[in-house]
TrEMBL record, chain B:
This is Cytochrome-c oxidase, cbb3-type subunit II. Keywords: Heme, Iron, Membrane, Metal-binding, Transmembrane, Transmembrane helix. Gene3D superfamilies: 6.10.250.2250, Cytochrome c-like domain (1.10.760.10). It comes from the Bacteria. The chain crosses the membrane at residues 12-36.
Amino acid sequence: MPQRADAAALSYRDCVSAKIKCLRYYRQQKKRVSRDRVSLLFMGDNDMISQLTSTERQYALVILVLMSLCGLVMAAGGRGDPLGVHGFVVLAFSVGLAFVLISGFYAPQPDPEQQTQYYDDPTKVGIALTMAWAVFGMFFGVWVASLLAWPDLTFDQAWSSFGRMRPVHTTGVIFGFGGNALIATSFHVLQRTSRARLSDQLSPWFVLFGFNLFCVLAVSGYFMGITQSKEYAEPEWYADIWLVIVWIVYFAIYLRTLARRKEPHIYVANWYYMAFILVVAVLHIVNNLAVPISFGSAKSYSLFSGVQDAMTQWWYGHNAVAFFLTAGFLGMMYYYLPKHAGRPIYSYRLSIISFWGITFFYMWAGSHHLHYTALPQWVQTLGMSFSAMLLVPSWASAGNALATLNGAWHKVRDDATLRFMMVAAVFYGIATFEGSFMAMRPVNALSHYTDWTVGHVHAGTLGWNSMIVFGAFYALVPWLWKRESMYSPKLVEVHFWLALAGAVVYVFAMWNSGIIQGLMWRTYTENGVLAYSFLDSVEAMHPYYIARAFGGLLFLTGTIICSYNIWMTVRAGKALATDNDAEGDIPVFARNAVQAGE
Amino acid sequence: MREFFHRKLERKTISLVVAIVAVASIGGFVEIAPLFTIHKTVEEVPDMRTYTPLELAGRDIYIREGCYACHSQMIRTLRDEVERYGPYSLAVESKYDHPMLWGSKRTGPDLARLGDKYSDAWHVAHLINPRDVVPQSVMPKYGWLQRNELDFSKLGLNLAAQRSVGVPYTQEMIDNASKDAYGQATPDTDAASGVSERYGEATNVRVFDGDPARVTEMDALVAYLQILGRLTDAAYKQSASADAPTPVGE
């Protein structure tokens, strides 16, 4: 019999079975719940600073002072250049955080007892930031979508033209929304599946705020016209260097916490989170190699040119999808879906096959973005072949997720949270099939350069990434804030149908427009001349662009409802009655200590 | 029974990390590294020229405004594309493009062979309000290009940075970058003569934005748009010669 037991299943069982009575722990939890209710705003919260040891507070201050100095140097060196503006952004960001820190600097030392609990404050703040970026990024998505139907919605301002706002949307949702969701959930999952507390209290904050600084620099830069033009790698050299520093610390947290783990095996979710962190680092560094025109300017030129640059860019671009939007989110799915469904992962072996398949095959597939171009044919063919093979691990993952729900389908029917996760897995299956299909040269001849690509991407991002995040958050928020349930299960239901309707309307609109576009471009008359001018195809897109903006609006509405629901759960959700499996939600060694003390 | 090897691997963090990086590195290495070493990857053509400082400034504006989000610069080897846009793009044509601007989406048409297709006046009118000349267009208005004077101060730095990534600009070109940019858009000044001297007689030296009194961002962008597909004749020569590979049918 293959061993199917894994850490999530184990920890789930533990959560259910282990009824640990520790009055001291209860009291503390109760106190924290009431304090949480008062401290609505996550940041600027003395309670959170008081969780840092005094050494950590000192280190934090030193880091913030150094960052402020960096900001000053950038502001001074980049006078008359957008770099100078970014210097002030860095300065304001660091000084702002320093104020918050100093306000709680002399708060009492944390209770050593805290070491016996998981450290979830960064996850809580991460959830808030995720939702803020989601609303921001999707709002700009709806706006840029509307620009294609009504091009004069720019107020004749440079910052609001399509070319500058489009990366605001993509960065806002991919990095702001997706990235924060990954960071927030990874800290939570890492601790639970390792049954160990995070290695320290400072570095998670560094990663979270550092990453958000990166996002702020990126987005504010686009408005000013700072971009490298590399899709999904638009931020300029200084922001890229900063992200590398943040990422190294992120990986160090993973290594150090895993080193403390009380679970012999590293759980599947962590393989994915680690692949996400590691490979994104490699991709990010290679694709962003560039030479700044001077250290006083935001402008740089990429090290590679032409065909090599194109291949590097799409090796990056496609694997940003693979390791940011797939691997990381699969990590999320592999924890929250079985946990919330109350079922162990269907097949351990299938998860091994899909993990290594995704890690290996994806890296070959980037060249399918360059079919029929000046890229040598052999590279195109390799990309196409591996894209076809990629279907195997992709569907293995999707199938594994769906089969995990066997025995819990009644819950899928009744519980919108689980339904979010189920639909995410279905969309993941659809989008990966579509991706492999579109990577075939003859299909790509039609689909490339059209809205079909946009539709495909959104099947993945709206249907898969967003849905799994919403599902995970609806499960996670009541756990973290010790609530009985979400504030309004009914609004979760409303959100589910808005999100599903929005995604379906969006994707159908883009399938239609993309295929019509592609066909119009290649249609010949009987006399052997092209039947349509390019403009004919532009005109034909108009109704679909309206439909797409409408689909996006539905999706955005759902996201706003979700934010409200999370906010109200934190503020006014019904606190958990004491006798619940949540008290098992402490690191394993702490649990032993407690038992020993009884 | 022997333990399944993976159960050992997943107990060791470092082994897992090494395995992930190793497995993930293979694909990119096999596909990218040879592109730098196989000489056939980029055609050798003698007449390929670099961008002038004004054209490079225009290219940087094209990047700044995100034009690449809606316009490709890569004509594929497909019959309908060749008939619609012109000879398919060769690798050599973007040899000096740091970064490349091949694009991924055609909300608007491909621009790889835009140069000389329309007059300067058409471009200026189109950029100020696309719907004045193309009523169905969904392109944004770029009126500020005509209002903003071009910033000459960093053009020397731009060329120097381009040289350090491999574009063959001479020291003389770098030293005269600002002057040449000014001269290319003001044919009646002394600065104009140096441009053709350094970048060839075929260089467009004229008032691009219709306003001889000022050199604006519009001058730079139109100068760039008018050179697209004109840096070398290689693609035209190849499509004219009999033994050229036939484009794939639809």
